[in-house]
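Lab meeting prep.
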Amino acid sequence: MNCDFTFKHYNAILTIAKNVGYRFGNFKESRQGPVLILRHDVDFSPRNALRFGTLEAEKGVRSTYFFLLRTPFYNLLEYNVVSVLRQLRKLGHEIGLHFDQQAVRVVDRRVLEAEVLYELSVVSRILGEEVKVVSFHNPLNNVFCWNAASFTNAYAASFFLKEMKYLSDSNHQWREGCLCRLLKERKYDRIQVLIHPELWDTRPGNVVERLTKAVNDSRLACQGYLEERNDVFKKRK
């Protein structure tokens, strides 16, 4: 088996997890093992998030997708992005807020909690239902093992290193070897796995290639918007 970052291999990972007896949970339910919580932080590509969500639904798997409110790569109010959120919900997945702590430059937890609650209210209004679960983008140390009173923190102690194994595909580095092998061995009974949709594709590729594609896709989306809305730009050639 090729341990690459392709949709084909992700499909194989899901198959292995099901075959060895993992239950796919979320951040709301009981976390009695063997349980696997799949988390997707959507840093750049809502389109790839939907590809993952569709693949998972076809295998009877559900996960949680966290979207940024502050990012130059996509607009959470834009029609196509709202459509992605709603399609993911119809597929049975949960939606959460991916909060960029460094964008607001807040360290104090009381102030931070207020900022998070504000963004949660915005995402909830966009989706048309209450959103209560949060993951932190490029997190600072003060959010690790923080059991926030007013929202569910994906880095809370019950989901993180103290009570649950945490694994991530960040920069294509699993750190303990490919996830498929760890699952096959049933090395851990309770696991939270972070998957970044933009780091995976139909063909093998490295991190720089994946991120360059995300940049190009964003540029093309902006170009398409101008061509549709601005006659001068449309006639530029």
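Slide two material, second protein:
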Amino acid sequence: MVGHCQTVENMLFRQLLLLILQFVASGAGSQHQPWHQYVRGPTSKVISPAAVLHTHGDVSNADALITKDGVATLKRPSTADAVASITLDFGRNLVGFVRLHFAGASDNHPGIRLTFSETTEYLRNVSDFTRSDNGDAITPGTD
């Protein structure tokens, strides 16, 4: 039964892909359509954070990530100190690739950890364990 469901899903996916390709090839996608007003997507391929929700540890000028004026600095002088962090809000759910720019780093093996959530209720400083943080295998259907 599982093999049959996968075959049906593959067939439906191929049909949908064919319809999309026909739509794009026809040029219909390049004209302004009335439904475009309802698309909540960003106006640019580069999305910047909308707000700094909070900082933890030794963080200075976190607002530079919003205003693009200066450099945000995170420090952790020793392992006894709190891990510095900045929690950003992009103002909407986004899909895409993360690109970070670093102005510099110390020579004591700095690291970076990124976590994501659709809501602050579940946002933590570690992954949600669906990737390899809590086992040896990647859970199917996760990014």
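Talking points for slide two:
The chain is about 20% helix and 10% strand.
The longest strand covers residues 51-56.
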